[in-house]
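[agent] plan:
  1. take the single chain provided in the ticket
  2. run structure prediction with default settings
  3. attach structure tokens to the ticket
  4. add a short note for the reviewer (M.T.)
[agent] executing step 1
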Amino acid sequence: VNQGLEKEGHPLRFFLVKSQGKWLVEVRSIKEGKVLRQLTLAAARRIFRQAVESRGLVLDEKI
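[agent] step 2 finished; step 3 output follows
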């Protein structure tokens, strides 16, 4: 996913991290250098299954 985002010039990257004993997917902005959101694996799976339009992912929708 990160390679595809990089090729298209999107400023988001995804990282798998372990926090307090749970695996999470962090959504980071490489432009701002900060974590925008932490997703559970189930939430990340739902997002990645959805078709991603040319505008990118909507990260502020309620999951």
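[agent] step 4 note for reviewer: Residues 24 and 31 are 21 Å apart (CA to CA).
[agent] ticket updated
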